[in-house]
Amino acid sequence: MSNRVIIFDTTLRDGEQALAASLTVKEKLQIALSLERLGVDVMEVGFPVSSPGDFDSVQTIARTIKNSRVCALARALEKDIDAAAQSLSVAEQFRIHTFISTSTIHVESKLKRSFDQVLEMAVAAVKYARRFTDDVEFSCEDAGRTPIDNLCRMVEEAIKAGAKTINIPDTVGYTIPSEFGGIIETLFNRVPNIDQAVISVHCHDDLGLSVANSITAVQHGARQIECTVNGIGERAGNCSLEEIAMILATRKAALGLETGINAKEIHRTSNLVSQLCNMPVQANKAIVGANAFTHSSGIHQDGMLKAQNTYEIMTPESIGLNRNNLNMTSRSGRHVIKHRMQEMGYAEHDYDMDTLYEAFLKLADKKGQVFDYDLEALVFMEAQADDENQYKLQQLVVHSDSTQGQATATVTLEVGEQVVTEAATGNGPVDAAYNAITRASGCQINISSYKLSAKGEGQDALGQVDITAKYHEQNFHGVGLATDVVEASVQALIHVMNLTWRADKVAENKTKIQQGRAVLGGV
Question: Where, if anywhere, are coiled coils annotated (predicted)?
Fold first, then answer.
């Protein structure tokens, strides 16, 4: 049996479906490219039949990614499999992942069928998916609570039908490691054709055991782990990719297993997913938390000064976290910026040097010293920029009187080809600025969440504002970054307004297409 564990990332499918606001196609592609650089073997990037937007994003990613296998999810239904195959057809190689529930509670309560009927549907789905690709994965949903006889029977028949990967999910995070490991061991002992497929596991973290269950599974013969960056996903989340990668790397001598993950990309990928998904990483999170390499105890600090490995079993550098933050000023040249970007793992094609250097100079003039984390923040914001924006801020002037509890804001806003200036009052500078923007744009946005965080250290740190807003029953996530928190707040709102404007344009275009089809159909 191979000692290579396949890393199947589902950040863009299982992880994304749990977010308060859906990611745009551009944001999903950014994450997919980062996952490709991270070295994931397979990336599950969506559920194409669920919406036209998901179909488009799967197709865009499948067209772009070359070094990882792109996969799409489909229920055991022909229309789902057709959508998956069509969206993935632009890729040279791809995987279709089809699934059906197998536990008694799901079969009887959700599907309202007999197990034999479900087995028949599963076999038919695998055979149908094989018409489009040799790489078909089949999942036994809620396998952790499925009677073992039924599970063995389902796995055997799915392999006979042509599935090359069989996934055993602990869908509700119910099992404990000894129990889950026993399920995998039983499958290897009782399914006669088990050697014809790769056994995969997909564990949820409802009881905090997703990583432990996954490691136990590979110790019992599984060779694919399904996981997400930062462990994001349904309910309590999924098995954490970075934890799996570093467990297998750090304990390679004990486990005898390895992955193709480029661990030095972990920190950057984690940050990107956290920011785009608007899901902060808890400080004490293993591997990527802010405190993961922090030592507070005096005894620990003393030990670290004497020998780093006294209290660190891996180094920050091993996951791409650079300890040395070189400060730069407005006198730093382009070559310095380029060097720092290279040191942080960025390739030249990851950013536009002219745009980055211009933003760097503006920031350096404002705060004096600029650090590595500032550069990363600027690159992140550059990646979010879009050429086609309906709204653009020209000027913001705010006056606030704490004794009166009132603030006044005046904004000059580009709205299409027009320039509009409006003023308004509010309960504080952010409220006043938002009221003025609403007047100037005529755009009504219902903000459901507002978060302010510091990107960096000290009183000159950049302020990042993340807002979630509801518009036409859909949630949108906007982000702003500036040394001034009011300006960052305005940027976040304008970001959301541009997203809603593009959503309206897409809806209008779809309506025109449908009307055109109706006219043609009536001819």
Answer: none
Lowest mean pLDDT among 8-12, 200-204, 471-475: 471-475
Extract the tokens encoding 9: 């990332």
**What gap in Å lies between CA 83 and CA 253, rounded to an integer?**
44
DSSP per-residue letters across 249-262: HHTHHHH--B----
**Nearest Cα to 388, choosing from 416, 351, 421?**
416
Say which amino acid occupies 209: L
Strand, helix or coil for residue 221: coil
Q: For residues 285 and 294, is the Cβ–Cβ distance under 8 A?
A: no
Binding residues for Mn(2+): 14, 202, 204, 238
| Distance, CA of 354 to chain centre | 28
pLDDT digits (tens, 9 = 90+) for 12-44: 999 998 898 889 999 999 999 999 999 999 999
Using an 8 Å Cβ cutoff, are 217 and 204 in contact?
A: no
- 51, 68, 135, 229 from 259: Cα distances, Å: 33, 13, 20, 15
Closest CA to 88 of 74, 64, 73, 72: 72
For residues 159 and 197, the answer to whether their CB atoms sit within 8 Å is yes
Closest CA to 389 of 509, 471, 499, 465: 499
Residues with Cβ within 8 Å of 24's Cβ and at least 6 positions away in sequence, in order, are: 499
Question: Which residues define the annotated binding site?
Answer: 14, 202, 204, 238
Pull the structure tokens for residue 464: 């990042």
What stretch of H or E contains 495? helix 485-522
Q: Within 10 Å of residue 74's Cβ, how many Cβ atoms?
A: 24
Q: What is the Cα 200 distance to its own chain's centre?
A: 21
Would you tell me the crossing angle of helices 429-441 and 485-522 to the nearest 10 degrees? Answer: 30
- 265-302 pLDDT, tens digit each: 999 999 999 999 999 999 999 999 988 887 666 665 56
**pTM recorded for the entire structure:** 0.84
Task: Please check whether residue 45 is in contact with residue 36, taking contact to mean a CB–CB distance below 8 angstroms.
Answer: no
